[in-house]
Amino acid sequence: MNALEVNVLVLAYLGDTIYENYVRRYLINKGIANVNDLQKEAIKYVSAVNQAKYLSLMLDNDFFTEEEISIIKRARNNKGHSHPKNCDIVTYKYATAIEALIGYLSLKNNNDRIKEIMEYIFYEEVH
Hints:
mainly alpha; globular; Ribonuclease iii, N-terminal Endonuclease Domain, Chain A
C-alpha cells in the first residue's frame, strides 16, 4: 500500500486512535488513576483547539519535513470536512491535519517520528 494514496480523512481516522492512545498512556504513566481525572487531563491534548495549537507551534518552529508538510497541507485543504459545533472549520482542519500526519507515519511504520511528535506535544503542554 502506498500511504501517499490513502485518503487524508482515512489517515486522520487512523491517526486519531494512535494520538489518543499516546495521550492515554502518557497520562496513566504520570500516575493519574481516576478515570474522571484522566478524561479532564486528556482534553488538554485531544481537543481540536489544542491539536490545532500544537500543529501551529510545530509549523512555526520548522519541526516538520517537506514530506510531512505535504501531508499536513493535503489534510488541511481537503474539501470533505464537516466539523463539530464547538470549534470553527479552520481549527478543525488543523486538528485533522495532525491526525492525518500521524496516520500517514503509522502506515509508513515510522513510529519513531510519531513518538517525536508526541513528545514535542507533551513537552509544550508542560512548559
